[in-house]
Amino acid sequence: MTIVDRRAGIRLPRALAALLATLALVVSSLVFVAPAQAITWGPKLCDGFAACAAKGYGNAGYQSVYKQSFWNMYGGHNCTNYVAYRMQKAGIPRFVRVGYGNAYQWGAEAKAAGLAVDKGTPRVGDVAWWDRAAIGGSGLGHVAYVEKVDVRAGTFTVSEDNYSSDFDWRVYRISEVSGFIRVAKPSLPASPIPTVSGSAVVGGTLTARPGTWAPTGVALTYRWLRNGAAISGATKSTYRVVTADAGTKVSVQVTGAKAGYTTTTRRSAAVSVPLLAMSAPVPTITGTLRVGSTLTANPGAWAPSGVVLTYQWLRAGQPIAGATARTYRLAAADKGKAISVRVTGKKANYATTARTSKATAAIR
After folding, report:
1. What is the full DSSP assignment across 262-326?
2. Which residue intervals define the domain Peptidase C51 in the entry (predicted)?
3. What's the rounded Cα separation, in Å, for the pair 112 and 299?
4. What is the C-alpha separation between 270 and 188, in angstroms, rounded?
5. Would you state the pLDDT for residue 261?
6. pTM of this prediction exceeds 0.85
7. Closest to 180 in 3D by CA, of 218, 233, 124
8. Mean pLDDT across the chain, nearest whole number?
């Protein structure tokens, strides 16, 4: 049986007509259905070293060395050199052989080196890896450094560098990677905030209470801080408060370390150490109570040594402008008024203290 092709007026055998129809469907599907691209290119959070830094997105120092080669990758702007730099900086042993530096090869190379590569939820510090298929079936793949993870949104944020482009930060979907190369160590499952107990006064002893860290075997170290800065030699679980702490805030930093886990540091709330009190006697005044005569303030013996004294003379209880020396020459304005002097002592770590003398009789 034959079929007539009405467009050309040609008679075709039924079997040949069926074959041509099938071929037409296949060609149609190839022409009109484009291959899907697996990766979603989200907007960049920043673009370029300077612009990213201005927004608070760092590059771990790569900006100053990006033209150098790390792990034998090509220097300059490209994804593999940047990630190799971050791995080297983190102390991760090289897992990519020489000659296998294209990004699409990193997954297989990492597996061959004994690292896990999977599509589970990433950790900060892991390497995000895309093979050729994920990028759209061509190119050399892509790798990036995981900076943040949003499990609820199903996304993660990376810092990355790009061939023929620039450094940037961008958000990707967790489900669209070819895999995460697991180089980041897990966090300790329990690392509580420490507390401080004891007597927060000069001469008193403070004790760090680290809480219960997990798993078992976490090694704890201590560092005491004064106003947030490390106190030299203060690395035990207890600390004796010294004079230099008076008037400051003291806290303790506890660091937990265990093989196979990320070393973790926690800091306690700060406790305030009160200022010390100085010995401050009431001053006296000597001299003739007559206009034109000179009066002298006798401050007495202040303690400890090193207290800096300042003076302010008073007329009827009010400060006399410019009268801030230990001596004061009586002026016409003082006639008929009572004169006194206020002495103020200052010293680091001590509470500033003022004492006022007894007022004189009326000046003649």
Report:
1. --EEEEPPPEEPPPBPPB-PPPEEES--STT-EEEEE----BSTT-EEEEEEEETTEEPTT--SS
2. 54-182
3. 82
4. 24
5. 87
6. no
7. 124
8. 89
